[in-house]
TrEMBL record:
<keyword id="KW-0288">FMN</keyword>
<dbReference type="InterPro" id="IPR000415">
    <property type="entry name" value="Nitroreductase-like"/>
</dbReference>
<dbReference type="InterPro" id="IPR033878">
    <property type="entry name" value="NfsB-like"/>
</dbReference>
<dbReference type="Pfam" id="PF00881">
    <property type="entry name" value="Nitroreductase"/>
</dbReference>
<keyword id="KW-0285">Flavoprotein</keyword>
<protein>
    <submittedName>
        <fullName>Nitroreductase</fullName>
    </submittedName>
</protein>
<dbReference type="InterPro" id="IPR029479">
    <property type="entry name" value="Nitroreductase"/>
</dbReference>
<keyword id="KW-0521">NADP</keyword>
<comment type="similarity">
    <text>Belongs to the nitroreductase family.</text>
</comment>
<dbReference type="GO" id="GO:0016491">
    <property type="term" value="F:oxidoreductase activity"/>
</dbReference>
<keyword id="KW-0560">Oxidoreductase</keyword>
<feature type="domain" description="Nitroreductase">
    <location>
        <begin position="8"/>
        <end position="185"/>
    </location>
</feature>
C-alpha cells in the first residue's frame, strides 16, 4: 500500500470502538513520524503528549467538542508548542546538535545569534504562533503514518485549550496545547462519515500552475 492509498482510505473518524486498542508498536510508529518532522531552524519547538489513561481522558473530555471520541478512542495525542523562544532553549537544541555531530559547541553561533535577535524583537504570542505552525507539520505526518497503518484518526481543534493545558500541566512545562489527534479503530455502526463519498477539489481547481 502506498501513502496515497492510505490517504484515500482515511477520514476523520466520528465514532470509535472502545474495545479495540492500538498496539504499542504501531503507536510508536505514529509518534516517530511526528518526531522526525522538519521544523524551522531544527528547533522542534513542540512536544507530544500521549494519553491512554481513561481517567485522564475523561477529564480532558470536559473541554472537548466531541467528548465521546476522546473517551472511546485508543489514544489521545496532544500536540503542544513552546510558549516562547528563549536563548536557553535555542542553546540547548544547538548544543545537543553539535555534541551529536562531534562538533565544538558554538559552531553555529553566527546563526543562533541571528535567530535569537529575531525572536527578541517579537512577543511571546508571536513565538507561540510560529511554534504552533511547526506542530502542524508534525501533526500532518502523524495523520499520514496512521493512515498508512490503517489506523483510524481524527484531527481536532475543537477543544478547550485551557482545560487541556490544566489537566496535562502544560503551562508548568512551558507549553501550550495546539492540536489534538484521536487514534483507534472506528465503530462501523456509529461512524456516520465512513460510508460517505470523499469530496475534494479537482486537481485543475486545486493546483495553480505558473
Amino acid at each position: 500500500m502506498t501513502l496515497i492509498d492510505g490517504l484515500n482510505w482515511r477520514h476523520a473518524t466520528k465514532a470509535y470502538d472502545a474495545t479495540k486498542k492500538v498496539s504499542q508498536e504501531d503507536l510508536d510508529k505514529i509518534i516517530e513520524a511526528a518526531r522526525l518532522a522538519p521544523s524551522s531552524s531544527g528547533l522542534q519547538p513542540f512536544r507530544l503528549a500521549v494519553i491512554s489513561d481513561p481517567e485522564t481522558k475523561n477529564r480532558l473530555a470536559e473541554g472537548a467538542f466531541n467528548p465521546e471520541c476522546m473517551r472511546e478512542c485508543s489514544h489521545v495525542l496532544v500536540f503542544a508548542a513552546w510558549d516562547e523562544y528563549t536563548e536557553a532553549r535555542i542553546d540547548t537544541i544547538y548544543n545537543k546538535t553539535t555534541d551529536e555531530r562531534d562538533m565544538p559547541r558554538g559552531r553555529f553561533d553566527r546563526y543562533t545569534d541571528m535567530i535569537k535577535e529575531m525572536y527578541a524583537a517579537q512577543t511571546s504570542e508571536q513565538h507561540f504562533i510560529h511554534a504552533s505552525k511547526q506542530a502542524y507539520i508534525a501533526f500532518g505526518l502523524a495523520l499520514a503514518q496512521a493512515a498508512e497503518l490503517r489506523i483510524d484518526s481524527t484531527p481536532a481543534e475543537g477543544f478547550d485549550n485551557d482545560v487541556v493545558d490544566k489537566v496535562l500541566q502544560l503551562k508548568e512545562k512551558g507549553l501550550r496545547s495546539v492540536l489534538v489527534m484521536y487514534v483507534g479503530y472506528r465503530d462501523e455502526e456509529r461512524d456516520w462519515l465512513a460510508p460517505m463519498k470523499k469530496v475534494r477539489n479537482d486537481v485543475a481547481d486545486f493546483v495553480l500552475t505558473y
